[in-house]
Specification:
CATH class of the largest domain: Mainly Alpha
Pfam family, one: HD_5
Structural class: alpha+beta
CATH architecture of the largest domain: Orthogonal Bundle
Order of helices and strands: HEEEHEHHHHHHHHHHHHHEEEEE
Number of strands: 9
Oligomer: single chain
Distance between the termini: 35 Å
Largest sheet: 5 strands, antiparallel
CATH superfamily of the largest domain: Hypothetical protein af1432
Helix content: 40-55%
Organism: Paenibacillus borealis
Shape: globular
Protein name: HD-GYP domain-containing protein
Strand content: 5-15%
Number of domains: 3
CATH topology of the largest domain: Hypothetical protein af1432
Strand order of the largest sheet: 8-7-6-5-9
């Protein structure tokens, strides 16, 4: 792939594109993916800035997330048939991580979240989602750039051990039985060994695969360790992993309403999840709702005006001429956010 063309991924062609022999290559208004760029480069076409326009954020997020999801699927499939089980880190660093970093630079939580909603590829899209949202959370926690880069890779690979779990267990439409659950839990130790044995990774990243289902009170798996033995990276990924799983449609259940997910996460802060990391996540998530329209549990649509410090999950909402303080209307809640 020609590097000079790569900068145009996620942008839109202004006019029909022809090669030097007049052969039609791509139609006007195409949103450029890495496959398009590969095709353009094969035709020895070098794009110029005037050949493209910047698309809106939603289209960019969708392209980036779809690209990453497709690349993750390819990585999973390679590993299934690769006896060494060494991770293709070059492919990951070239085709996945740059997109994840570009998307997380935008800091547009709800726009990004809309693009992350799983289609029929939850297993792969979930890895991308956890990579992006963990990177955002790492920024909110003020991690240093080198720590952030490490976290992005660790979060994106957190579920890599699932390639060794039978597909019928991963996509089972109902709850797992005891034997299936025991098999599913092995993805943590399998992932740990795969990352540990891959050149170009470090032990901290391997520990995220091992520990992202451990809980502060020792109720998690695979080893039921207490909070002081869980790494900070693992605690970050645990928060994001739960959030994205609960807000996504799965084989066996529909996505939970956003408000319900946040309320459950807040309830879990003391015991299951790291309280500081989880509170930063919830507060930032709520702050980024200001100005957004939300659907309330009674079906009305309002705009979030202010997040209340004493009760961030119950903000001040404007509906027509009314201002409703949800902290005083306990019967009302936010069902979902409408992206700007």
């Amino acid at each position: 792939m020609n590097n000079s063309n790569e900068q145009y991924i996620g942008k839109q062609l202004v006019e029909n594109l022809f090669n030097h022999n007049g052969v039609f290559v791509l139609p006007a208004l195409t949103l450029l993916s890495s496959d398009h760029i590969r095709l353009i480069s094969q035709h020895k076409i070098f794009l110029e800035p005037h050949d493209v326009v910047q698309v809106d954020s939603a289209a960019f997020y969708q392209i980036a997330v779809d690209e990453c999801t497709s690349a993750m699927e390819s990585i999973f499939e390679q590993l299934r048939f690769n006896k060494s089980k060494r991770l293709p880190m070059i492919e990951l660093r070239n085709e996945v991580i740059p997109f994840i970093q570009r998307v997380s630079e935008k800091n547009d939580f709800y726009g990004i979240l809309a693009a992350l909603q799983s289609k029929d590829d939850y297993t792969y899209r979930h890895n991308v989602a956890v990579g992006i949202l963990s990177t955002l959370l790492g920024k909110w926690l003020k991690l240093k750039p080198e720590e952030l880069s490490m976290l992005t890779i660790a979060a994106t690979l957190h579920d890599i051990g699932k390639i060794m779990i039978p597909a019928e267990i991963l996509s089972k439409p109902g709850p797992l039985n005891e034997e299936e659950l025991a098999m599913m839990k092995k993805h943590t130790t399998i992932g740990y060994e795969m990352i540990r044995d891959t050149v170009g990774t470090n032990h901290m990243q391997a520990l995220v695969a091992l520990q992202h289902h451990e809980r502060m009170d020792g109720s998690g798996y695979p080893f039921g360790v207490l909070g002081h033995r869980i790494t900070d990276f693992s605690k970050i990924v645990a928060v994001v992993d739960i959030f994205h799983a609960m807000t996504s449609d799965r084989y066996y259940r529909k996505a939970s309403p956003l408000y319900e997910v946040l309320r459950q996460m807040e309830d879990n802060v003391y015991g299951k999840l790291d309280p500081y990391i989880c509170s930063v996540f919830i507060n930032k998530l709520m702050q980024s709702m200001i100005g957004n329209e939300v659907v309330l549990s009674d079906g009305r649509i309002g705009k979030i005006i202010m997040i209340l410090a004493h009760d961030p999950l119950r903000p001040l909402v404007n509906i027509d001429e009314d201002f409703i303080d949800l902290s005083r209307h306990r019967d009302l809640g936010i069902m979902r956010v409408i992206p700007l």
